[in-house]
Amino acid sequence: MKILFLASWIGREKYLNNYQKIDQVLRTTQHQINSDFILNFDIHKAKKEDQNYFLDFNRQLNRAVKKTDLFVIDVTIPTINLGGLITYALSINKMVIVTFGNNSVKDQYFTQTFDCHHQMIILEYSNLEELEIKLPKAVKEIQDNIDVRFNFFIDSHIVNYLNKICREKKISKSCYLRELIEKDMKKNKKLYNATMPS
Asked: What is the CATH number of domain 2-144?
């Protein structure tokens, strides 16, 4: 599994130990880890660069999010940029683990906005020892629960309806279709129970 780790660049000075610990813990999971966008980012060099540097950096970051299976993001210092990246990752059906230290100022809006999303685990930690225990468990939970993905063909009038209803409800197409299936499963409890693993 490919895992991309990111956190606040402005938080590097204060929370570098946390970021390095997250990277270290992720590497114990034996997955392919990319922490370059946070650990190898030189903010002093970046400040001297022009706008093209940041546009190129953002393009590279978006490509990395597209290629990853799991996006781990620390929001101990929450920023609009991090919230945007979480939203983008979820919109392209990526699994996300959001971590934050509870000794930080907890941004209620930030965590509540994403709190109930089925593709995401929110992981609060009070110290690095707790992080070391919780993070591998969260990664395993994501790995064990990665949904089977499939494509299917539908008529254009159905696509138009799907686009309109999802815009209206402000949810993704996959989320809407999942809701329809779950409603049907509740109606057909006997069949649903028969398909559950014993």
From this structure: 3.40.50.450
User: N- to C-terminal Cα distance for the chain?
Assistant: 27
Going by the DSSP 8-state scheme, the letter that residue 198 receives in this structure is -
Sheet holding 2-7, edge to edge: 32-34, 2-7, 70-74, 95-101, 120-125
Cα 20 to Cα 3, 24, 97, 101: the distances in Å are 15, 6, 16, 14
pLDDT of 41-92, one tens digit each? 877 777 777 778 888 888 999 999 999 999 999 998 888 888 899 989 988 8
Give the global pTM.
0.71
Q: Are 95 and 30 in contact (CB under 8 A)?
A: no
Q: Model confidence over 131-174: pLDDT tens digits?
A: 999 999 999 988 887 755 666 788 888 888 988 988 887 777 77
Taking CA atoms, 5 is separated from 61, 70, 110, 139, 166, in Å, by 11, 9, 18, 12, 30
Residue 17's pLDDT is what? 92
Contacts of 23 (CB under 8 A, 6+ apart): 5, 33, 35, 39
